[in-house]
Amino acid sequence: MKTALITGITGQDGAYLAKLLLDKGYKVYGIVARRSTSSLWRLQFLGIEREVQLLEGDMTDPSALIRALQVAKPKEVYNLAAQSFVGTSWDQPITTANVTGVGVLNILEAIRLTDPSIRFYQASTSEMFGLIQEPMQSEKTPFYPRSPYGVAKLYGHWITVNYRESFNIFASSGILFNHESPLRGIEFVTRKVTDAVARIKLGRQNELRLGNIDAQRDWGFAGDYVKAMWLMLQQDSPDDYVVATGKTTTVRDMCKIAFNYVGLNYEDFVVIDPQFYRPAEVDILLGDPSKAKRQLGWEIETSLEQLIHMMVEADLQRVGKETQEGIAPAIILGA
Ligand code: NDP
Ligand code: GDR
Known about the structure:
Blueprint: E1 3-7, H1 12-23, E2 27-32, H2 41-45, E3 53-56, H3 62-72, E4 76-79, H4 88-91, H5 93-114, E5 119-125, H6 148-167, E6 171-176, E7 179-180, H7 189-201, E8 208-210, E9 216-217, E10 220-221, H8 222-232, E11 240-243, E12 249-250, H9 251-261, E13 270-272, H10 290-296, H11 304-325
Parallel strand pairs: 1-2, 1-4, 2-3, 4-5, 5-6, 6-11, 7-10, 8-13
Antiparallel strand pairs: 9-12
Helix pairs in contact: 1-8, 3-5, 5-6, 7-9, 7-11, 9-11
The site of guanosine-5'-diphosphate-rhamnose (GDR) has 24 residues, from helix 7.
Family: Belongs to the NAD(P)-dependent epimerase/dehydratase family. GDP-mannose 4,6-dehydratase subfamily.
GO molecular function, one term: GDP-mannose 4,6-dehydratase activity
Protein name: GDP-mannose 4,6-dehydratase
């Protein structure tokens, strides 16, 4: 039986990846940061909270990471933990640098000192491209991050490349474009929209306040993207791969898809609110996934329409239950 350790197992991708690895017969360990309330809702949603082995630890505490490796003895480590919300990275730039940037070094050092034969996956991001000059971004496109999050991720990316080249560690970096699901955090724009569509449809909310709806993103389904992570660690040698759909859509058109699905017009409900504008914006992202297709045999299986419909359906069910059970609506954080 193969053993894997996932940092960020309680996040969107961590939950889908844990499910994928369990289905493949892996023993799955996950590192969970101490919180005052349980963060296991995504693992519970997928029905796997009892199948994974959880170890307490924080990306900023190298001793906890070393201990986790000593206990789990994994063959593969997937580093998904991060302060991953771009908006928050301007309010908490130092936390973001420590967790999302130096945290990668902490886990790589733990691997180097514990068992350098461990295969390592780093969750890199299209946010590293930022203010790009090329119409489509590939592994060869230069980086120009536009947020403290993007800058921290760029450090994580290069330290991964550096440990591969310096210590011969099997370290691969997936440069993933935006991917979403019913398990997406409520602060990200797709989930903010699908949650609002459900609330408006069910008479619980009157409007949806958004920032820059002309921004364009290359959105895919998280369930498809975690397959690419696994494939990267099954190759003969480590490498970097762009994972994307190859299509870009405005936030405005994504809203249209979501509102149309329940028979509403987004223009009747969306209000532009400058508080959701960012100090520096990434206007457009469009990934070229040819290398992942060619070398990994990876393909997207879910269209944007299917994804948004799946998310609206899940939010309609959730909001319906909340109303019956009297649970307070989730707080929507700023962008
Ligand atoms: P989430 O924000 O949903 O999950 C982040 C995870 O990191 C959570 O489990 C969180 O724990 C954990 N975490 C945060 N801080 C710490 C810490 N100090 N120590 C230990 N764990 C911590 O992100 P996603 O699942 O969407 O993304 C996974 C990774 O992929 C992230 O690194 C993200 O930056 C990157 N990425 C994501 C993309 C996307 O579109 N989703 C695209 C490209 C890259 P808790 O639940 O307790 O908060
Ligand atoms: P992003 O995702 O910043 O691309 O990072 P997000 O969904 O937060 O924003 C996408 C675009 O929508 C615009 N926008 C708004 N965004 C939010 N959150 N809230 C709003 O009200 C709003 N209005 C407009 C944003 O300005 C932006 O242009 C995600 C994260 O998962 C990162 O961790 C990951 O690395 C990248 O995707 C790839």
